[in-house]
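Obj.: predict assembly geometry.
Materials: sequence records (below).
Method: joint structure prediction, all chains together.
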Amino acid sequence: MTTASAVRAALKGQQIETPSWAYGNSGTRFKVFAQQGVPRDPFEKIADAAQVHAFTGVAPTVSLHIPWDKVADYAALAKHAADLGVRIGAINANVFQDDDYMLGSVTNPDPRIRRKAVDHLLECVDVMDGTGSRDLKLWFSDGTNYPGQDDIRARQDRLAEALAEVYARLTGEQRLILEYKFFEPAFYTTDVPDWGTAYAHCLKLGERAKVVVDTGHHAPGTNIEFIVAFLLREGKLGAFDFNSRFYADDDLMVGAADPFQLFRIMHEVVRGGGLDPASEVAFMLDQCHNIEPKIPGQIRSVMNVQEATAKALLVDADALAAAQRAGDVLGANAVLMDAYNTDVRALLAELRDEAGLAPDPMAAYARSGYAERIKAERVGGTQAGWGA
Amino acid sequence: MTTASAVRAALKGQQIETPSWAYGNSGTRFKVFAQQGVPRDPFEKIADAAQVHAFTGVAPTVSLHIPWDKVADYAALAKHAADLGVRIGAINANVFQDDDYMLGSVTNPDPRIRRKAVDHLLECVDVMDGTGSRDLKLWFSDGTNYPGQDDIRARQDRLAEALAEVYARLTGEQRLILEYKFFEPAFYTTDVPDWGTAYAHCLKLGERAKVVVDTGHHAPGTNIEFIVAFLLREGKLGAFDFNSRFYADDDLMVGAADPFQLFRIMHEVVRGGGLDPASEVAFMLDQCHNIEPKIPGQIRSVMNVQEATAKALLVDADALAAAQRAGDVLGANAVLMDAYNTDVRALLAELRDEAGLAPDPMAAYARSGYAERIKAERVGGTQAGWGA
Amino acid sequence: MTTASAVRAALKGQQIETPSWAYGNSGTRFKVFAQQGVPRDPFEKIADAAQVHAFTGVAPTVSLHIPWDKVADYAALAKHAADLGVRIGAINANVFQDDDYMLGSVTNPDPRIRRKAVDHLLECVDVMDGTGSRDLKLWFSDGTNYPGQDDIRARQDRLAEALAEVYARLTGEQRLILEYKFFEPAFYTTDVPDWGTAYAHCLKLGERAKVVVDTGHHAPGTNIEFIVAFLLREGKLGAFDFNSRFYADDDLMVGAADPFQLFRIMHEVVRGGGLDPASEVAFMLDQCHNIEPKIPGQIRSVMNVQEATAKALLVDADALAAAQRAGDVLGANAVLMDAYNTDVRALLAELRDEAGLAPDPMAAYARSGYAERIKAERVGGTQAGWGA
Amino acid sequence: MTTASAVRAALKGQQIETPSWAYGNSGTRFKVFAQQGVPRDPFEKIADAAQVHAFTGVAPTVSLHIPWDKVADYAALAKHAADLGVRIGAINANVFQDDDYMLGSVTNPDPRIRRKAVDHLLECVDVMDGTGSRDLKLWFSDGTNYPGQDDIRARQDRLAEALAEVYARLTGEQRLILEYKFFEPAFYTTDVPDWGTAYAHCLKLGERAKVVVDTGHHAPGTNIEFIVAFLLREGKLGAFDFNSRFYADDDLMVGAADPFQLFRIMHEVVRGGGLDPASEVAFMLDQCHNIEPKIPGQIRSVMNVQEATAKALLVDADALAAAQRAGDVLGANAVLMDAYNTDVRALLAELRDEAGLAPDPMAAYARSGYAERIKAERVGGTQAGWGA
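Observations (raw C-alpha cells):
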C-alpha cells in the first residue's frame, strides 16, 4: 500500500486536462441541442475551462482544437489563459471537416489533398511553438465506407509518409501523440483502428511518438487496462483521452458508464508508474456534453477521475502481490475490490479543503453564479460548436 | 423449389420503397459533405426517386419524412409523384429535432412536450389521409444518456399512452408500424431498444400495429433472420428498413456489408410468406449516402435486394426440408448455399429486358445524363438535409 | 429514500438461492480443473450449500439440476436439506446432454426425440411434487450451427407445443420459468435467444409462466436493467440467474465484472417492487467456479448481491424523482451515484452481527475448517461435475 | 486482372493444411457428441486427413497437436503420412491441459510451472526436428479470470522470457508462429489477446517469428482483412487459422458464417502477395466439427477457401486501382463485388477434372465408402478428442 501521505501527495499533484470543445455545443448526427451561455470564441472557452480548475484545483490546462480555436495571436490566448490561472495544453489537429477530406486526409488517394492535410499538421506545430504546447495530438477520421473503395495497404504507406514528415518537424520536448479509433466516421476500414496500428507507426517514428488511449475507441469487450499496462511496459503510452460509453463512442462523462473499468485503468497506471510526471503520460478529457450542462459536466468528470485515482492508490500493493504469488484468486481479487469499494469522497473533500477549495466542487460551482452570468452575458454572436 | 416461372413472377412483382431523405445531404456528427445536384424540396426528391423506379422497375413508392417533406398541398405532391410514375409511401414522423425533445418526445417527463409530440404524430396521420399512405412509421429517439436520468418504467407508461392515442386515430387500412433501435442518439437507455419491446406494445395496440425491422438497429451478433421468422409467425412483421453496417447503425447500402445475411433474411421472408402481398410486409430502404452519389446508391441498393430475393427464391425448398428432416446438417446447409452461390445477375437482367428496361440499371442511369442535368439545374436554394 | 429501518428489514429478508452445480467441478471446453473436496453426490452438494447459508444467513435454498441431482428418494433429500437448515429450490431440467439431443431436444425435427425431451420435463415436475419446489426452470440449448440446418419457424412451433404440454401439467403454485440465452452451445440460431422470445411464449402459456433473466445471456452492450424494468412492469419477471462476464457467458461471480451494472439492475428491482415477496421474483445464482474455490465463490457472490441491494435501497427515491421531473440530468444521475458510491460493507456487517452471524462471512468460513474437512473426507468416489 | 491462366495456376498451386484434431471428437463445455468412426490414434487421423487431400488435391499437409498426437516414433508417423500422400505440417504445442496450468503456463506466477511449460515447448521443437516441420505454432490459454488475480505486466515479462528461450532453440528454416485470441478460456485478461500484442513480441524475437491470424479470435466487429493487410505490409503474417463464427470462437467451417468476409481476407492476401510461396504464409484450418461429420466438414471447408481464393483472383486489379485513384466509391466497390458475385464453382470443377479428380469432392467422398468403412473398422479403443 502506498502510505497515506504518498496517496495524498499523488492526488494533490494530479493534473487533468480539459478540452476546449467540451464547452461548446455538440450533439449527434440527429440533432445538436444548443445550450445558453455557450462560448462564442476560444477566449470564452478558456474562461470556462478556468472555472473547472478553480473549483477542482487539478485541471490547470486546456487542449485546443485547430481550426476551431484558431486565433490571430496565440501569445495573447496563452496570456489570457495565464491570467485566468490555466495554461494551453495539447494541440489537436483537424483534418476531417474540409470538403476535400471526404475520402480521407493524409491517406487520400489524391496527392494534392494529402499535401493540404500535412500542411495543416505542420501549421499545428507552428501553433505549438506559439503556445508552448508539448503535444501534437493526431486523430485521423481517414478510412473507407465500402469494401474496395480504396487500397488498405497503400493508405498505410501514405499515412507513414505523412507522419514521418510531421515528426521530423518537431523540436525540443515536443511530442507526436497518435490516437486510434475503432470506427466512425469511417464505416468499413479506419486507417488507425487499434492500438497495434498506432504502436507500430510510433515505433518507427521514434521516441517522441507515443500512443493515445481514448477510452471510448475500442471494439466491444476490449480490455482497455491490458492495453494501458502493455503500452506503459513498452514506454509508449503518451496520453489518455478520457470519456465513457455504453455502446459506441458516446462522449459520456468519464466514469459514468463503468466506474469499475476506470478504476482498473487507473490501477494499471499506478502499477506502471504512469502517475510519475517523468512518465510524461498526459491525462485528458475528450468528451462532449450533449444534454447535460457543460462546465458541471467537466467538473464531475474531473472528480470521477480523481475518485478512481484515489481508489487505485489505496490498493494494498504488498497484499496484492502476496496473494498473486500464492495463486490465491479470490484473495487477490478481494484486495483490489477492497480499495474499489472504499468511499473516497471524504478523503478528496479533505484534500480540497486543505488546498483552500470548497469540498464539493459541484455545489460550489452552482453557488458561484457563473452559469447565470454567462447565460446573461453571452448573447449574440455565434456559439462554438463542431461546425459539422 | 419454386418453379422457374413462379420465381420470375415473384421478382417481377417485388416492390421496394425508397426514402425521400436518401436523396438529400447526410453525414456523420463530424461532417456532412454536400453533394452537387441535391434536391431543394420534396418535389425534387420525388423526381429523384422516380429515376430509381424508372431504371429498376421495382421502386414505385417513396417514403416521406415530416416535417422534412412538409408541403402546403399534399394532393399536389401526390399528383406530382403520379405524373412521374411513382406514389407516396409511408409517412415517417420526426419527434427528435425540436429543441423541446432534448430529453424525449412521447416519453418526456414534461406533459406539455409529450402533448406536442403526440400532436405531431396525429398530424402525420392527417398527412396520410391527404396522401393516401397506408403506414405511419414511428421511430423514437427517446431515451436517456445517464443512469438515473429518468425512470425507465414511467417512460414505458408514457410511451404506451401516446401510442394508444395515435393508434385510435387510424382509420380503414391505415397501420402504425413501430421501429426499434438498439441505441443512438440515446446512449444509456432507449425506450424502444429491441424487437421484444416493439412487439409487446404492438400486441396491446391491436392488429393494425406491427413491428419494423431496421437491419442496422441491433446489438452486435444479433440473428436478424430469427427475428424476421419469429415476427412473421406471429403475424407482426410490418416492414423492413433496409440498410447495412459493419459496426453501429451506419447507413451503408443494404447488402454491402453482409450480402449473405441479406440472403438469409430474404430466405426467411420467402419461407414465412412475406413476399405475398396479403402479408402486407413493406420493403423499404432506410439509408443515407454520405460519400457515394445518392441516386446510384439507391439503384444499387434496390438491385442488392433483388439479387438476395432471387437467390432466396432459388432455394430448393423440398430438398431443404428433406435434408432438415433427415438431420443432415451439411446437406441442408449445402442446399441453402447452392442458391446463395448462384450468380443471379443474368436472370435479373433478362427480367428487366422483358419489362422494357435496360439490363444494367447503373449503366443506364449513368448514360441518361440525369446526374449532369440536376447538377446544372439545381443551383441556388437550400439543399435538403437532416437539418441536425 | 427508504427509511433506514426499511432498508435493514429488506436486507434481512433477502433470499438468494445457490445452485447445486456450483459446488461440483466445472470448466471450459479446454479443460476442467478438478478441485479437492468436491461433492460426490447431491447430499454433499446440499451440505456445501448449507455452509453458504450458515455464514451469510440469506441463502436458504438450493436449486437442483436433473439428472445431475437425481436421487432415489427426493423426500430424503429434502429432509437432509432441512436437517442442515436449507430447502430445495427450483428444479432445473437438462435436455442437452443425451446423445439424442445433438440436433435439439424439444425442437428436434425427430418427434421421438421431442417426446423423450418432453417426458424428461414432465419427470422434473414429478420431482417438484416430491421436493415441494415451486419453480421449473427451463433452459434449452436447442438451436442450429449452420444456416439452413433446420427450419427456424418450425422449431418455434415445436417449442410452443412442448411448453404447452408441460405448462398444463403444473399444479397449484407451481411455475414454469423460461430462460433465454444469446448463443452457446448453438452457434447460429438459438431457439430462445432473447427476452422477447421468452416473453412471447410465456404470454401464451399463462400467468404462471414467467421469464428468467440470466445476467450473462445477452448480446454485447444489452441494457439488462431495461429488460428487468420492462418485465416487472408486465408482471413477467420470474427469476434471476445471477453471474457476470466480461465477454460471452463466463460464469464469473455476480458483480465481479461490472458491479455498477448489478447495482443498476437491483435499482430497477427495488423500483419495480421485485423485492416484495408477493412479486414472486426469485433471486438465484447460476455460475460455476472454474479456478476459484467453490464455497467461498458462492459466499462472495451472495455478498455481492447483498451489497448491490443495499446500495439500491439507499437511493433517495424522492430526490431522484424530483430531479427526473425537473429534467436535471446531472442531478438525477448524482442521486443514483451517491448511493452507489456509498460503502455499505459496515452496514451489512452490522446486520450480520445482529443476526448472530460473523460480520465477515469469508473470514468466518475460512476459519471454520470446513474446507480442510471436506478435502480430507471426500476421498474416493466420483466428483460431481457437468459430465460433458 | 490476373490472366485466366495465372488464376488457374494460382488455384492449382494452393495448399491448405488440415488439423489432426478436426478428425477427433469435439464439442462444447455442455456436451461432446461422439461420432462413429472417429480415429483412435494419430495414424488414423492422418489417414482421414489424407482423404481430404485425395478428394480436393489441395490439402497435402496435416498439423499435429502435442501431446494429443504424441507417438513413440515420429519418423514412422511421417512415413505413414508419406505413404498416404500427405506430409506433417505445423506442430501445435499444448500448455493448457495439465492441472498445473490452471493459473497459466509460461506466464504462471510459479517459476516451476513456467519451466515445465517451456520444456514442453522445447520438446515440440524436438518433434519438429523429427518430423521436418517448419512451424511451431504457439497458442497460450494463459490469462486471468478476475481483476487483480495476477499482475498483467509481470505476465508479459514472463511471456517474453519464455518466447525468447524457445525462439533461440529454433534452427534453419524453423519458425515460431504466435497466435492471439480475444478471450477464452481466460475470461478477464488474456496474455496474447490481439494482433498488436503478438506483433510486438514477434518484432522483438526476430525475423523467424510471425503472427498467426485465427479468423475466429477477434472482438465483435473487428476488420480482419485490415489486420491481414497490415501484417503482410510488415512482413509479419505467418499463417492463418481458418474457421468461422457468428458469435464468439465457434469452430464453424470457414466461410460458413460470412463468406464475403473470407473473400475480403483472400483479396488482401492476393493484394499483399500472400499467395506467393516466398511469402511463407501458411493457410491452415483450425476448426472442429461438433455436429457435422468430420471428413466432409474438412472437405467443404477446403472448398470454401478455394472458392474465396478464386473470387479474389478474379478481381480486376487494374479496374479497381483506376476507380480507387478516381475516388469512384461505387465504381471501386462494384469491381470488387463483380468478382464476389461470380459463381466460380464450375471453374474449380474444371480444374479438378484437369487434375484427375472428381469435380465434386463432397459427392465423390460420399460415394467412396470410406465413411462406412471407418465406422465398421474403428470399433473399440478410445476415440480421439480434446481430453478436456
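Conclusions so far: Chain A touches chain B through 41 residues (CB under 8 Å).
To do: check interface contacts against the pulldown list.
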